[in-house]
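User: I'm curious whether this sequence folds into something compact or stays loose and floppy. Could you predict its structure so I can see for myself?
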Amino acid sequence: PRRGAVVLAAGSARAALVVDEVLSEQEALVRALGPRVRRARHVSAAAVLPDGRLSLLLNPLSLVRAAGGRPSASLFPTPAAQRTRRRVVLADDSPTTRALEQNILEGAGYEVVACADGAEAWERLQALGADALVLDVEMPRMDGFSLTEAVRASPRFSRLPVVLVTARGKPEDRARGLQVGASAYLVKSAFDPTSLLETLRRLL
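Assistant: Here's the prediction. I'll summarize afterward.
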């Protein structure tokens, strides 16, 4: 299929970013990322599109530096080739964080089922199944700890990898997460897309 390219400039440096398709050029209301996700690689802000959807904005300077003048560069790490796409159920009540993590996972080749809270994630998991769960802890209706306990108590999903990605970084919170059965516990204040992808790769 025919693809397009977007030329990025940062000072005197230039880089061409290959894209599947150039959809449009439009103005948008830009919002700064919160401190929990500010370290996300190559992402500088979020924008609310005219139709109400949330979109992440890439940082041109970061992308140009990552390309480093090489003819071809992989800006986002991807997992080894897989025969079928792995499905990840993702739950976070923050639209910005959810969109960020969904983009990271989809960019790495995963099929993502995004949910706004733990109860929705539990419903979607039972209906669709999944290869892994990526969960926030503090969510309405059903929090990440409770959902992890439900997963571990289920004969069908008891061995499913569960990654908690949360702002709660105290030792007692981490201990609680591991106690209820989380496979990994990542703190948002030190969030790095590479750590999330490497954690999933290790667990799968």
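Summary: Residues 114 and 162 are 15 Å apart (CA to CA). The helical segments are 60-67, 95-107, 118-128, 144-153, 171-180, 193-203.
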